[in-house]
Design brief:
By secondary structure, the chain is α/β, with parallel strands linked by helices. The protein has helices spanning about 30, 35-50, 60-70, 90, 115, 125-130, 160-165, 175-185, 230-245, 295-305, 320-325; strands at about 20-25, 55-60, 75-80, 95-100, 105-110, 135-145, 150, 155-160, 190-195, 215, 220-225, 255-260, 280, 285-290, 310-315, 330-335.
Length: about 350
């Protein structure tokens, strides 16, 4: 598995026009236990919030397919039967790209279960199986990388974390310079902005999609710690690093701060890696994960002035975060082709 990325293919900004979104239906009771039905309800609510953008949904068996079909009635959706371990499509699917003429493409990486922590049947080769059904140029690298570990503005700038990319497990021996060279080749970028640590108890080892997200080229959002916030020091360091950073065009980043969820506890009393920036953005909406009844208005009010005219839709991800993530983690967007004459 080593197909070099063709020159000129770029991973675009997620807020650019998209054609559809991929996700997967929670389908393994042994993984979700009592959270299975609530997690499915949260995925269904996400799909409703995305409409009219079509959603392609992986289902793993007859019962899962029937449940998804019932829950998504009336929405633009397509079901695909596939074997998968869990629903974290941002990390287990390929990453869509666009070529210099606007043609569709995609690039996949090697998946190792987040440094070998969660090696579930069906996950390691899911990207290859699904990518084979996508149109356009398919590229592959025999390098471990998860989509949630890299944030791009589509204009040459990436953000990532040392905790994840330089953990010594995914790609042993990687230096910061090695990682930058690889990211710029694979994503079609020129500038990498490094953050240090991620959220407490994040099994992904500091994925950036829970820490900092582009609202537009040159504009990035991060979180302000609340009272008794277990991630206070981490969040303050992130905001400081972003304010000091310049992007690929030499601009100082405009930093937008939104509230942190603060201390969100799981059923067993553990601190969960809850994040309001693990949103899913389309050209029409930003669907923002929330974890408590009193937070949607606060998050919407903080984000709306910077949303570029998009709808800001707070939606509960309380059960999803018990499984380890939220809306960005469970999805992969596919950009609209910019090829002249394409729909």
């Amino acid at each position: 598995m080593s197909t070099p990325r063709a020159a000129g293919f770029v991973v675009p900004f997620e807020g650019d026009p998209i054609d559809h979104v991929w996700t997967a239906w929670p389908g393994h009771p042994e993984l979700w236990e009592a959270r299975l039905a609530p997690a499915r309800a949260e995925v269904a609510a996400l799909c409703r919030a995305l409409a009219p953008v079509p959603v392609h949904v992986l289902v793993c068996d007859d019962a899962t397919e029937a449940d998804a079909e019932r829950a998504l009635q009336g929405l633009p959706f397509t079901l695909h039967r596939a074997s998968y371990g869990d629903i974290w499509m941002r990390d287990t699917l390929a990453v869509p790209t666009l070529g210099p003429d606007g043609a569709a493409g995609s690039v996949r990486f090697r998946f190792d279960g987040w440094g070998g922590k969660y090696d579930l049947p069906g996950d390691r080769d899911l990207a290859e199986r699904v990518q084979a059904t996508w149109p356009g140029h398919a590229f592959a690298f025999d390098t471990v990388l998860e989509g949630g570990s890299v944030e791009t503005d589509g204009d040459g700038t990436l953000i990532t974390t040392r905790q994840c990319l330089l953990d010594g497990v995914r790609n042993p021996g990687w230096t910061e310079a090695d990682a930058e060279r690889f990211l710029c080749e694979a994503y079609g970028a020129t500038t990498v902005i490094w953050l240090d640590e991620g959220l407490l108890n994040d099994h992904t080892d500091g994925h950036v999609d829970t820490l900092a997200r582009f609202l537009a080229p040159g504009v990035v959002a991060c979180m302000v710690p609340g009272d008794d916030d277990p991630n206070e020091a981490v969040l303050l360091d992130i905001a400081k690093a972003l304010r000091a950073a310049t992007d690929a065009r030499g601009r100082r980043l405009k930093v937008v701060e939104i509230p942190s969820p603060g201390r969100v506890l799981g059923d067993g009393g553990q601190i969960l890696p809850a994040s309001h920036v693990n949103w899913l953005m389309t050209h029409e909406a930003i669907v923002v994960p929330t974890y408590a009844p009193d937070t949607p208005t606060l998050v919407r009010d903080a984000l709306w002035p910077h949303a570029g005219g998009r709808r800001v839709v707070p939606s509960s991800a309380r059960s999803l975060v018990e499984g380890g993530g939220a809306f960005h983690c469970i999805t992969q967007h596919v950009p609209a082709s910019r090829r002249p004459g394409a729909s």
